[in-house]
C-alpha cells in the first residue's frame, strides 16, 4: 500500500488539472503530463516528477502544481527551494485548510533545513572555519529561533574576537526563556568577555595617553569602568583627570573610592590624593546599628492586640445596648402635657438620661480603640509574617538618625 503522503499528492495533482490560458497553445497535454508526474512521485522518482511539474507550471501556474513541486523539493532534500515554494504557495489564493497545511509544511521544512545547516556549522567549527560557522549558525537561528543557537553564536563571536557583538548576543540570550543552568553559563561567559574587553580598552587608553591624547584615553577608561566597576580603573580615571588639570573632577572620582571598606588599598590612595589636591576628607559614618525583628513575638503580639480589640468592640456593643435601653425607658415613660416625665421622679429621669449618654460616649470610645487595636493587630501579623529575617538599620546623623529596612535572603 502506498504511503498516505503520496496518495495525497496524486489526488492533488489530478484535481489540480485546469485549462491553459485562453489564446495559448502548448505542445504537450497538461493532464497527461500531470498524471506522469504523479506516477513518478509515487515511484520515488522525484527529479522526474519535478521536471514534469515545472513544465506544466510554466504554462499553468496553479497552486496545486506549486504544492507538488514543493513536495518534490522536500523529498529530494532541497529544503531551501522547498521553503521558497511553500512560501509562494501560502501567498496564493487558496482555501483556509490549505493555508494551514502550507504553514505546517513550512515549519517542518524549517526544522529539517536547520538540522542540515547545524551539521554543516558544527563541521565548519571543527575545521577551524569560524566565520563560516557563524554564518551558518545565524541562518539556523533565523529559521527556528532556538536560544541554544544564539548562545553558540555568542561563543563563536567571542572566539573570533568580536567581543562587543558577543556581549550583545549574550544579553539578548538572557532575555529569552532559558533554564537556570543556561543563564548561569551565559553570565559566566559575559563576565569573561567584559574582563577581556575592559583590558582591551585599558591598553588602547594607555596608547592614547602615550600619544598625549588624554580626552580619547579618558573616554576609553570610562567605557572600561562601565563594563566592570573595577576600583583600579576608577583610580586610573582620577589620576588622568589630575594629569589633565581637572582637580575638582579628580577629587570627585577619588571620593567614589572613599566608599570602599576602611583599609582598602584603593581607598587609602584616594584619601592621600584628595589631601594632596587640597580636598577635604569626610569622616566615615559610624557603623550602623542593626536589630532583628522577632517574627514569632510580633505575631503573638498581634494575637493579643487583636483579642483586646475584639473584647473592646464587644464591650462597646454591650454599652450601646444598655444606653439604648435607658433611652427607651425615658422615651416610654409617662409625660404630662408639657412633656415632663411623670412616670418616675425628675431626679430618677435625670440620672437615667445622664447614664444613657455616658454609656453611649463610652461605647463610641471603645469602638474607636477596639477598631484601632484590630488594625494594629493586622499590621503586626502581616509584618511578622512577611518580614521574617528583616533588619532595621539606624545610622546616626546630625540631629537624629537615618533608619532603613532591609531583608536577608
Sequence stretches where pLDDT stays below 50 over 5 or more residues: 1-25
Query: What Rg is obtained from the alpha carbons, in whole angstroms?
Result: 43 Å
Q: Total number of helical segments?
A: 16
The pLDDT mean sits at: 82
Trace the largest sheet across and list its strands. Answer: 1-2-3
Q: What is the structural class? A: mainly alpha
Summary keywords:
about 400 residues; mainly alpha; Serine Threonine Protein Phosphatase 5, Tetratricopeptide repeat; 3-stranded antiparallel sheet; about 70% helix; about 5% strand; flat; disordered N terminus
Descriptive notes:
- Strand 2 (390-397) and strand 3 form a beta hairpin.
- The relative contact order is 0.04.
- The protein has a 3-stranded antiparallel beta sheet, with no helix packed on it.
- Among the domains are: 4-114, Tetratricopeptide repeat domain (Serine Threonine Protein Phosphatase 5, Tetratricopeptide repeat, Alpha Horseshoe), CATH 1.25.40.10; 197-276, Alpha Horseshoe (Serine Threonine Protein Phosphatase 5, Tetratricopeptide repeat); 299-376.
- With 409 residues, it is mainly α.
- Helix 8 (147-159) packs antiparallel against helix 9 (163-174).
- The protein contains 16 helices and 3 strands.
- The model is unreliable at 1-25 (pLDDT under 50).
- It has helices spanning 4-15, 30-42, 46-59, 63-76, 79-90, 96-126, 130-144, 147-159, 163-174, 180-210, 214-227, 231-243, 247-257, 265-276, 295-332, 346-386; strands spanning 289-292, 390-397, 400-407.
- Helix content is 72%, strand content 5%.
- The radius of gyration is 43 Å and the shape is flat.
